[in-house]
Amino acid sequence: MADHYWEQLVASGKIDVSEQGFEKKQRMVDVDTLTHKDAREVGAEWMCFQAIELLKLNEFFESLNWGEQQIQLAITQLISRAVCPYSEWRTSRWIKENSAVCEITGYPAQKITKDKLYKSALDLYKVNGPLEQFLSNRTNELFDLQDRIILYDLTNTYFEGARRGSKLAQHAKKKSKEKRDDAKLIVLALVVNIEGFVKFSSVFEGTKSDSSSLGDMVDNIRLCTSGSHRAIVVLDAGIATEENLTLLQEKGYDYVCVGRVLSVTNRTFGGLKQRIPNHIVKLTLTAQISMDPNSLSVNFIIRFFKINFF
Length: 310
Known about the structure:
The protein is α+β, with helices and mostly antiparallel strands and 310 residues long. Helices cover 39% and strands 19% of the residues.
């Protein structure tokens, strides 16, 4: 409408403008005078939001009877953790000063504080079990996954602070992956499928040994993976004790694991068959030779994989 009347005024000669000025006034936006104000990042945030929509996390949170703003804040928290994985204080500043995440999720940016991010994280952690199970099943549906092979392993991390009174953070000598035997540790356990999707996770006390963790995890593995077939669990040598392997079979799993190294000399080589279970299918024989001229000796080490299929 404005363009129509503008053209009529120019055509009737009632407005005296030069050709250059006329072209300039015709523009809907004068790019020569365009300035940026309150510019914000949106690319990575939008990609994360699309992934969250595909995962139907809104439906999951609604099933918990969460309110609209609680859901918006939780999604803001998840996106922020993916794009800007820093402290709550720094994340709140990033949201207010740099990111358009709140414009995407609908949560008012002026309400963001570090304390609200703390509370939202605690709300999410309270439902971490059902949330992991929901995401495991949802990713299986999206990508038509069967979870025929799942991998289980552990690691640990340390705290710089004293963590007085913590039931999880404990001193565990000679177990720190970062060689921080002076600091308190926690153990992180993770179950993933071969496509890399997390199936289940857990946090144990720092004194938890690798071999003793499987009993606490094995029932949750079934809940968070496809149960329509017999799955194969892949373990490393630290977890693959005979007790754990028996437990897996009793729970309906098969397994692939690295066997523990056997040191074999000429005195035990003859009885080797009695020491190795029947389901070992691959043997690698190497030799360690002492170069001391006064004591020449050869020690054979057998490294093997245990595989047990139904």
